[in-house]
Amino acid sequence: MPVHQIPPRIIKFGPAKPAFPNDVELVAELVPKELFGAEDLTGRLTVHPQGSPVQMSANLFHGGFQAASKGRLQTVKTETSFFDMSMTIEANIARITGRLSSEEALLRAVHVCTAYLPAFLASSLAAPVDIDDLYGNVGSAFFQVEVKGTFERVISVLDTSKTIADFMAKLQQLPEDSAGRVFAAQRYLNQAQWLGYSARHPQQFAGERVLNLHKAVEVLYPHSGEVNKLRSQLSAMGLREDVVELFASLAYIRNSVDVGHPKVGVMGGKEHDDFHLFLVYMTQIVTWLVNHTVERLSQVDSPTVSPSVGGSDLAKTMSRVGDLLKKVEPLQPNSFFKPQGASTGPSTESQVSSGAAGAKNTSKKQKKKQ
């Protein structure tokens, strides 16, 4: 999971206090249940029982097809190792067992389970996986794993009818040289808000929300990653220095969580809490900025500028992608390799190793420069 999606968690024990070292069982309830044969298929997954007929339904507005025929995958029942512990999965219940020496070792096992087990299962099954609940026992002492609290919802009350009418009137009074950017900023802002609304839990799409909030600001006030240029534009609007710095922080954070660059590690507890608090308030602040920009730029005597359709610069790239898809069989990965005997590049293993080595060497060079 991305670094910002793994909140700090605590272990709450019942009346019975644990003793260590002891035998430990972690129980993870996995979702979606249909992937593990614990519920009928809903059509949202692309997997389907072998040998069964598939009936498809089309969404004529959004496009795309979805399996409409009902069925159920074979119930999962397997035993395997989970690094220094053992794991059994029956239906959507995973049980991880082992002998641990301390509560710190248990907390580490919980962290490894929450951070990596869904990703491992998703990779093996080529379908999304998450943990819906996690609990277990240390000897006979029951425990529940809980998130250490995140701050999420901010409620506002609107006169919705009047707000819509007033806003639409202002949108149609924007100057021609600004209208396109204002319209685009609202698409990015809506995407950020929709990701927050549709997430199963606050952490799920946090990084993608940051990315879209940053895009909303960047399309309004282009700065090409030069944060000082963004500072100058916002300062010229009369914003206080600390408010300007909040927007600058959005650019820095966008580059620090793994929607901007890949990350191997995960956030610590305080980092995680501060990040999610920032995200909640920044959503409100960017919403204000977009609306304030509309208010500031709208002019009663401006001719109405309608949103443009098209204008993408991807035509050449997508044409090439279309040609490549005709040559590659996406559903037949065995055909991805060169014919036997043909010249091949370095093995996957050596590429991964050299990538890691390259990262280490880069790190050493950076340390020397410092």
From TrEMBL:
<feature type="compositionally biased region" description="Polar residues">
    <location>
        <begin position="332"/>
        <end position="354"/>
    </location>
</feature>
<feature type="region of interest" description="Disordered">
    <location>
        <begin position="331"/>
        <end position="370"/>
    </location>
</feature>
<protein>
    <submittedName>
        <fullName>Uncharacterized protein</fullName>
    </submittedName>
</protein>
